Amino acid sequence: MHRGGRPLDDDDDFYGKGTAETQKLLVKEQDDTIRGLAASVQRVQGMALMVNESLAEQNRLLDDIDEDVDRTDSKLKSLHGKLARLANDGDRGKHCVICLLLGVLGFLVFLVLGS
Fold first, then answer.
1. What is the pLDDT of residues 64-92, one digit of tens each?
2. Whole-angstrom Cα distance, residue 30 to residue 38?
3. Where are the beta strands (DSSP E) in 1-69?
4. Which residues does 11 contact at the CB level (< 8 Å), separation at least 6?
5. 7 contact partners, CB below 8 Å, separation of at least 6
6. Is 3 in a helix, a strand, or coil?
7. What b/e readout covers 40-76, taking b as 16+ CB neighbours within 10 angstroms?
8. Assessment of whether the complete model's pTM goes beyond 0.90
9. Strand pairing partners for 3?
């Protein structure tokens, strides 16, 4: 058979070649897109690894700070206890000094009045 003066076999070859070329172009475009996506995924993976390393370092630093804060808190509690004892001891010391000075004053009054 003929359509428009050409045999159908020629039309099939023409359209077959066109379809094959179109498919090749589509496959090439898909391959290019996939390569671009793969490159993007690799960049994202690299960034994710860097973020992970940064987070690990920051976590280590936070642990160090936490240990330092715990040590400082312990030292402050110890110092607070010592200061509280010193303040209580200081009150007793003040009372002792007052008693001693009153005794000295009484002795001096006795000496002055007794002479």
1. 999 999 999 999 999 888 878 866 776 67
2. 12
3. 2-3, 6-7
4. 3
5. 1
6. strand
7. eeeeeeeeeeeeeeeeeeeeeeeeeeeeeeeeeeeee
8. no
9. 6
